[in-house]
Amino acid sequence: MADPNLKRRDYRVSGPENKRAQEKGLAEADWYTCPIPRERLKELMKRKDKPAIRDTFIWFGALFVMGIVAYYCWGSWWAIPAFALYGILYATPGDSRWHECGHGTAFKTPWMNEVLYQIASFMVLRSATPMRWSHTRHHTDTIIVGRDPEIVMERPPIWKIIFMQIFHLYGGPREFYKFFLHCFGKLDKEEYTYIPPSEHSKTFLEARIYLLIYAAIFVWCLQMGSLLPAMFVGLPSFYGMAFVLLFGMTQHLGLHEDVLDHRLNTRTIYMNPILRFLYWNMNYHVEHHMFPMVPYHALADLHEEIKGDCPPASRSFGSALKDVIVALVKQGKDPAFTIDRPLPGTARSYKFGPEEAVLESDRVAN
Question: What is the residue range of the signal peptide feature (predicted)?
Fold first, then answer.
């Protein structure tokens, strides 16, 4: 467990670390990018409708089938595994589809991205417009303390929050608080720092629609005298979130803060086809952060293009998760602990800050 006497940095984007990051030249800075031929990059950036349409039909088809199974299992012990699988299919792809459609790269047709983005945002209990701007900041200032509003866990880690998030019991209520705040035409203090005024009215409208849907589900449950309607819409945003948490933990945790090189603060992981489908290839996370306009279906090819300039990918999801947990335990005693990963001999040096790279790859310790 984290030592409560250890000094903590202020991770709020409305706190003093924001100004400090700007003074250090870390805010909205120039990031390192791996060399790749321009024509090849343009080819990889081409958007297509077909892969995302196919995957969306598979996702909703699987969710529909699993929903029928869960419905007929209701009232028996078989409902527990049935709804567990339904929840995973509801929330995990919901999170990855929210993410990719928020970038506008999943489909070639813009309205398709927007429709699925709005649906997925609701499914994973996120305000669509605020999270679009939050995620824009996350990409601009990735894991820069005081700038990035999407840092999963601070140093030293607060394990209580991690365990609560298995069922979204920390973040979920906070999102509902924001929904009610938005419903009455207000934002929280941090949201004012990254949501432009022109987007405020859209934020408030989305919150009101969300709350109306949840109110309708609540009334339906009361009329039936059963939680069953909420087990299909609403509650999966809580009981189905375990993989969302675990995937999110492996993206950046244990790696460097306050650097300008995604090879230092982001992790690529090799995953099996099922996990890759659920995650929509976001396991290629270094690639995604370095070239966010490359669609999910081209990330594996992008990985092959730049892997000679990157640290080796984690061998598996389990291996990456183990590294994260070990790092979090060590950060509980020493918040400065960071996983340093050696680069291959073909790679260019890491870029740690606004100046030139500090260390050569052969000087980076395991």
Answer: none
What does the buried/exposed string (b/e) look like for 132-162 if buried means 16 or more CB atoms within 10 Å of the residue's CB?
bbbbebbeebbbbbbbbbbbbbbbbbbeeeb
Neighbours of 128 (CB within 10 A): 22
Q: For residues 38 and 36, give the distance between their C-alpha atoms in angstroms, rounded to a whole number.
A: 6
Q: What is the mean pLDDT of each run of 10 residues along the chain (366 residues)?
A: 65 95 96 97 98 98 98 97 98 98 97 98 96 97 98 96 97 96 94 94 97 97 97 98 98 98 98 98 98 98 98 98 98 96 96 66 38
Please say whether the beta carbons of 98 and 248 come within 8 A.
no
Contact 289, 103 (CB under 8 A): no
Sign of the CA dihedral with 252 first, then 256, 262, and 264 last: negative
Pick from 8, 46, 32, 11: nearest CA to 358: 32
Q: DSSP readout, 98-166?
A: HHHHHHT-S-SSHHHHHHHHHHHHHHTT--HHHHHHHHHHHHHTTT-TTT-TT-S--SS--HHHHHHHT
- CA separation, residue 27 to residues 112, 138, 266, 298 (Å): 32, 11, 18, 29
Q: Which amino acid makes up residue 9?
A: R
DSSP for residue 259:
-
**Largest separation between any pair of C-alpha atoms in the chain:** 67
* Structure confidence at residue 295 (pLDDT): 98
Measure the CA angle with vertex 134, ends 291 and 129; round to 5°: 110
Give 22's DSSP letter.
H
Tokens encoding 96: 């990855």
Residue 314's SS3 state is: strand
Length of the chain: 366
Distance CA(110)–CA(64), nearest Å, equals 26
Find the Cα–Cα–Cα–Cα dihedral 318, 324, 326, 328, rounded to 10°: -150
